[in-house]
Amino acid sequence: MADDLHTRYLAADRTWRAHRDDCTTCTDHTHCQTGTPLYEVFARLQDAYLQRQKKR
Questions:
Q1: 39 near 24, Cβ under 8 Å?
Q2: 35-55 vs 4-22: helix axis angle to the nearest 10?
Q3: What is 6-51 written as a DSSP string?
Q4: Cα 32 to Cα 19: distance, rounded to the nearest angstrom
Q5: What pLDDT is stored for residue 18 in this prediction?
Q6: pLDDT of 30
Q7: Cα Dmax for the chain
Q8: Residue 3: what pLDDT?
Q9: Which H helix or E strand runs over 5?
Q10: Could you count the other beta carbons within 10 Å of the beta carbon of residue 43?
Q11: Which residues contact 34 (CB under 8 A, 6 or more apart)?
Q12: pLDDT tens across 1-56, in order?
């Protein structure tokens, strides 16, 4: 069975990257009004996933 946190983290990554690829404003370091929350969700889930991996 797939790990739910990992699944959500990867989905957020795909969503953020799809937006960034289509957005003329967003880069890896700056984000538009729409891209900011997408990046924040991705970053939060990535941090949570990596923190949990450290504890194992």
A1: no
A2: 150
A3: HHHHHHHHHHHHHHHHH-SS--SS---TTHHHHHHHHHHHHHHHHH
A4: 10
A5: 96
A6: 93
A7: 40
A8: 86
A9: helix 4-22
A10: 14
A11: 19, 23
A12: 358 999 999 999 999 999 999 999 998 889 999 999 999 999 999 999 999 888 87
